[in-house]
Amino acid sequence: xxxxxxxxxxxxxxxxxxxxxxxxxxxxxxxxxxxxxxxxxxxxxxxxxxxxxxxxxxxxxxxxxxxxxxxxxxxxxxxxxxxxxxxxxxxxxxx
Length: 95
Description:
Blueprint: H1 11-16, H2 21-29, H3 44-50, H4 65-78, H5 81-94
Helix pairs in contact: 2-4
């Protein structure tokens, strides 16, 4: 993964750096909110099912690039092999 050294990256830049949409969504959803059980790795379905405005924190959130990198690894390891191959293939062909 490339280092995220500044703010203002586009979604495309995250994608091009190899971050999965599910990992980026997971990281962004946890900025200022969290599930009752304090899990950090959640699927989209889990985020939708568990989100509640009453758990939104009024404190300013800080984006953590290292945490996103860790989350991305967790999401990659959780992917079925066929899905992982489909996600990686465009990068292998373009390079």
